[in-house]
Amino acid sequence: MSSPILPFTEANSKRVASLFRQALRTAFDSSLKFDAYRKETIKIRAQFEANKTVNDPSELEKIIQATQGKLAEWKHPDPYITPCRPGGTKYQRNIPVERGPLVPGDW
């Protein structure tokens, strides 16, 4: 059984930052216009700022678990993927040609 991560540690900061980035990506996947996305990002930031000073490790774990559950609930079925990244529309579209002999065979 792992012990809970203590508040205000580097590991905890990375964990919360990762959740924040996931929340922003989830909001980006769900919004069609930048104005709507910007409003959602402000709400997300306010929710994270509200829990910024939590000192109790058990309460912190509950908040992180609730955040992970909310992210799983709101996950978009067809998320946006940057075109050149794996799974994107342009990924490996122009595969480099293999530079072998021009005429195959043994002469």
Automatic annotation (TrEMBL):
Pfam family of the protein (one): Complex1_LYR
Signal sequence residues: none
Region spans: Disordered: 77-107
Entry annotated with the keyword Lipid biosynthesis: no
InterPro entries: Complex1_LYR_dom (IPR008011), Complex1_LYR_NDUFB9_LYRM3 (IPR045292), NDUFB9 (IPR033034)
GO process terms (BP): mitochondrial electron transport, NADH to ubiquinone
Keywords: Acetylation, Electron transport, Membrane, Mitochondrion, Mitochondrion inner membrane, Phosphoprotein, Respiratory chain, Transport
Domain of life the protein comes from: Eukaryota
GO CC terms, sorted: mitochondrial inner membrane
Transmembrane is among the record's keywords: no
Domain Complex 1 LYR protein intervals: 14-72
Protein localization: Mitochondrion inner membrane
Major location category of this protein: mitochondrion
Membrane disposition: Peripheral membrane protein
Stated role: Accessory subunit of the mitochondrial membrane respiratory chain NADH dehydrogenase (Complex I), that is believed to be not involved in catalysis. Complex I functions in the transfer of electrons from NADH to the respiratory chain. The immediate electron acceptor for the enzyme is believed to be ubiquinone.
Subunit structure, as described in the record: Mammalian complex I is composed of 45 different subunits.
Family: Belongs to the complex I LYR family.
Name of the protein in question: NADH dehydrogenase [ubiquinone] 1 beta subcomplex subunit 9
Natural source organism: Suhomyces tanzawaensis NRRL Y-17324
